[in-house]
Structures are given as structure tokens and as C-alpha cells.
Backbone:
């Protein structure tokens, strides 16, 4: 499968790992570039539980969540409920959170792939 998503700071192997994990290309009107996105339930992302984002008041395990790799290489999640909780991680500045969310989302990253992000 050919991937239209590109990012100057992420190796092709990392981009392919996201595609292999079920992330699909998505474009938004008024936004430049292609995103890779995957919709899951919050309870399916151990990262959200481990970091106390699932609090049972504002974010519940059954809430839908959209995890996206942005054209800039940031990894973000958006809780799709009335709170619209949102986090965005820079792959350089917040590499640990970026990698943990990617792994939690089912992305298989080798150690050298993770360290190059």
C-alpha cells in the first residue's frame, strides 16, 4: 500500500509502523498535509490509564478517542466526548510520551526506530 503521509523528521520505517498498526490517512479542510489517524476507545490505550487521564468523571474507558500522527510528526489524542480532552506530544521535546502513546496505540517500534523519532 502506498502512503501519501510524509514527515521530514520521521523515518519511513516509523511511518510504515503506524500504517501497519491500522492508522489511516486523513485530511482536514483548512489544514495542510496528511494525518495518520486511528479511532479507539480510551480503555484500549494503556497510556491513558497509566497517566491518570482516564478519571471516570471526564474521561471514561468507553469514550472514543482519536490518535493522530500530525504532518509535523507530533502524536496527539483527542477524547471524543463532551470534554474534548486533548494532548499533543512533540517527538523531540516529549519523546518518552510520544513513544509510550505510539506503543499503547499498537505501533511496533524497535528501539532504534523509537530513538530516531
Residues:
Amino acid at each position: 500500500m502506498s502512503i501519501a503521509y510524509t514527515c521530514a523528521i520521521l523515518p519511513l520505517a516509523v511511518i510504515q509502523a503506524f500504517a501497519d498498526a491500522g492508522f489511516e490517512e486523513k485530511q482536514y479542510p483548512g489544514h495542510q498535509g496528511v494525518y495518520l489517524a486511528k479511532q479507539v476507545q480510551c480503555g484500549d490505550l494503556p497510556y491513558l490509564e497509566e497517566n491518570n487521564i482516564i478519571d471516570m468523571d471526564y474521561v471514561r474507558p468507553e469514550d472514543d478517542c482519536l490518535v493522530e500522527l500530525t504532518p509535523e510528526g507530533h502524536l496527539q489524542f483527542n477524547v471524543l466526548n463532551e470534554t474534548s480532552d486533548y494532548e499533543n506530544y512533540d517527538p523531540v521535546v516529549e519523546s518518552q510520551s510520544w513513544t509510550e502513546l505510539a506503543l499503547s496505540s499498537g505501533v511496533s517500534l524497535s528501539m532504534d526506530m523509537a530513538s530516531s523519532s
